[in-house]
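Figure 2 data, in text form.
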Amino acid sequence: MADARMLELNNIKKTFNKGTINEKPALAGVTLKLDPGDFCTIIGGNGAGKSTTLNAIAGVWPVDEGSIIVDGQNITGLPEYRRAELLGRVFQDPMTGTAATMQIEENLALAARRGNRRGLGWGITREEREIYREQLKSLELGLEDRMTQKVGLLSGGQRQALTLLMATLKKPKLLLLDEHTAALDPKTAEKVLNLTNEIVARDSLTALMVTHNMNDAIRMGNRLIMMNEGKIIWDVSGEEKKHLQVSDLLDKFSEVSHGQFANDRMMLT
């Protein structure tokens, strides 16, 4: 089917604390369609709706209106745990995606069993261990020789690389990357981004990556969307995206954010 989409967001709306003094419109009718293999970066100022969009897809809370369809399956009403087998997710905080008190190989086994029924026979087989060793070797961090080490002893960059591996172990329909290099030093962030590119390309994954870094937003993926006040205000792909400059993004931000731009600019550069 030529028109099969991997992700369809149809007019997604979400307001937090509705009807109270703290009412906050977060998503104001987001419509987005991704084809299989699309790698789309999302950029925007604080409160633009970037992470809220990812949370809506992941099912962190129900949306007020609209529908979410992943690979032809309407998941709008599904709870978060039921979506887990379709989605891989890497968060900003390297501590979020792993179990610190468990060994590296145990974390990988948990990821490999995601979406399966859990029985009592939970041991890791020799065959599985070999698969994990090969996967870890691809990270080039020496973790394949430390598989029984507790994850809590790893550095932030090592944990984030491991989380990325765990999120993609079962080749998810959709990979959600929520500022997954923001907490890392520049050198480590670069390594994790390169790794992200390699894994997405190797497994032909469809990915959505939220970032504050304009260079990364331009460099990564085949498509870029800009959000402002809960809406997608710019959608660039193909040749147009390849020729984007940071100055183009700054001009667009300046145009849409009016007085708030000075604050956002500091954060975005």
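Caption note: The two ends are 41 Å apart (CA to CA).
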